[in-house]
User: What shape does this take?
Amino acid sequence: MIIDPDGKERYRTSGFLPKEDFLAELEFGLAKTAFAHKQWQDAASLFDEFVKKHPNSDLAPQALYWAGVSKYQGTHDHHVLGDTARAFQKQYTNSSWARRASVWAA
Assistant: This one.
């Protein structure tokens, strides 16, 4: 579990994972915590770093999606959503997160 300074649970995972997968889960949880606290730049950086560091993780498509949302929230520039949709056309094309981002590919 990742609990923020206010005592609110921000991320949870369960079950045994190999060390690298467990560390990836924790990194993802920290990015989600930054997002929950509206620390848009930090969240975008953490999600981007996650995708670079763990491109084959089950969480990578979700991290790519939330990186785009974080960037949009921080800038209100709709072009970043289009960039995210185009990134999904290159990787994670069959993920449910790619389908969610497909509406941004205008």
Q: What stands out?
A: Residues 2-104 form a domain with the Serine Threonine Protein Phosphatase 5, Tetratricopeptide repeat fold (CATH 1.25.40.10).
